[in-house]
Structure formats: structure tokens, C-alpha cells
Design goal:
There is one protein chain. By secondary structure, this protein is α+β, with helices and mostly antiparallel strands. It has one domain. It is built from one helix and three strands. The chain has a three-stranded antiparallel β-sheet, with helices on one face. A hairpin with a 5-residue loop joins strand 2 and strand 3. The radius of gyration is 13 Å and the shape is elongated.
Length: about 60
């Protein structure tokens, strides 16, 4: 997963090891406090938004020519 944002309030990333990370940008602009465990509903909504967007994107080029 890449990243997804819900306005300027929250951002979710697929972190190292495949775990999703959730940050509340309105309170944590430097993205230091992972809120994924504390806010699973918001994490799920952002993950679903990313998956809908990703489904409509062209495949990433692999450089095979």
C-alpha cells in the first residue's frame, strides 16, 4: 500500500513489515504517534479509500522495456 489521506485530518501508510500506520495530522504533523491500534475504524476507512483508488491506477512499470 502507498498512502491515503482523509482531507488534512489523517494519513495512513503501509509501514515496514507490512503493518499499517495511522497518523492524526491535525494533532501530529510530524507523524510521530501511530494511532492504528487506537482508531481501527478510521484506519479501515482510509485503507478502503486507498484500495478503491489503487484499483483504478495503471500498473507500475517494471522497467522491462
Amino acid at each position: 500500500m502507498g498512502s491515503a489521506r482523509l482531507s488534512s485530518r489523517a494519513s495512513v501508510y503501509r509501514g515496514e513489515g507490512g503493518a499499517d500506520q495511522l497518523f492524526r495530522l491535525s494533532h501530529d504533523q510530524r507523524e510521530q504517534a501511530d494511532r492504528a491500534a487506537a482508531e481501527p475504524e478510521l484506519l479501515a476507512a482510509l485503507r478502503a479509500a486507498w484500495e478503491r483508488t489503487d484499483a483504478g491506477l495503471l500498473p507500475y512499470p517494471t522497467g522491462g522495456g
